[in-house]
Structures are given as C-alpha cells and as structure tokens.
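User
Class, as today's exercise, I want you to study this protein, comparing sequence with structure tokens, and judge whether sequence predicts the tokens.
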Amino acid sequence: MKVTGQQLIAAIKEWSHVRDMATAEFSMSNHRFPGDQKDSPAEVSARIVTAEGNVAKLQAAQGAFNQRIKVTVDGETLSLAEAIKRIGGVSRVEKLWREVAKGDEKKRRRSSLYGDDIGLVRSKKDDVERAEILVTPAEANLKAKEIAKKVALLRSAIQAGNARKTEIEGLEPALFE
C-alpha cells in the first residue's frame, strides 16, 4: 500500500487514542448495574490488544518509511529517520546558545560560586578570583540564530519527506479508517 508519513502519523495517533480510551474503560468494565449496556472486561481487553497490535504494525511501517525516504539537508542526503534523530540534538544545542544569549545568572552553578554583575566570583582565601565571560550574549545570539537555521532546514526536510508517498508492504487499508 502506498502511504505518506503524515498518514502513518495520523493513523498511529488514532489507534493510540483507541487504545487509551479502551484502557480507561477497562477498570470500570468489571462492574455493571442491571440494565447497563457495557462491554465485558474480555471485550474491552480484546480492543486494547487489537489497538496495541495496530500501533505496532504502523510504527514498524513508519520505521521502514523513515529509512526508505531520503531527504537533502544543506547539500547532505540523509534518511528521513536520521533527519528526525538529528533535529532533537540540534534543537537542544540551539536552546543552550539561547540561554547563554540571555545572560541568565540563575542557571549557573551555585555550590562554591556566587554571581555578581562582573562575572562569577569564587572566594580563595583572602583574594578573589573572577571567571571571565568567554562568549558575550550578542555572540551567543548570533550562534543561536545560525543553529536555528539548521533546525529550520531539518524541519523543512522532515515535512517534505513525510509528504512523499512510498509503497510499504503488509499494510491494510483498514488501519487508516
């Protein structure tokens, strides 16, 4: 069956929701008042197992899709899977540079260090040792912007890759209904 990554993502979300709803229903399924129309615990657990199985099939298909689809990021060809893995790390580095750009003293270590307007101060007997700032907030902001461009390129490539259709064996149309 030919599918896009977006179809796989949507189907995984839908079957996960079905599983979560059945899981929530399960604890209440063992008690029934006369006249109630409720599924038995066996019926509810069967829905959970079916939904779990469908999520597993779809996630396996998504893995195959992500390996099969190739994207180009800044002149480098990657599998969609690798692009997805890379964006997390690059986004975390961007966040680190943004924190430095803020000049946030609260984030600095406090055990034997004390913040002041000049920089970090550490008492050393009678004299005072001051740590120098290696990167100014303005420099850190430029670095954060540079890395944000890489994040945007990865995000764009991932979106384009997920929009492509490819044949994935073993998928049934019922998984997408």
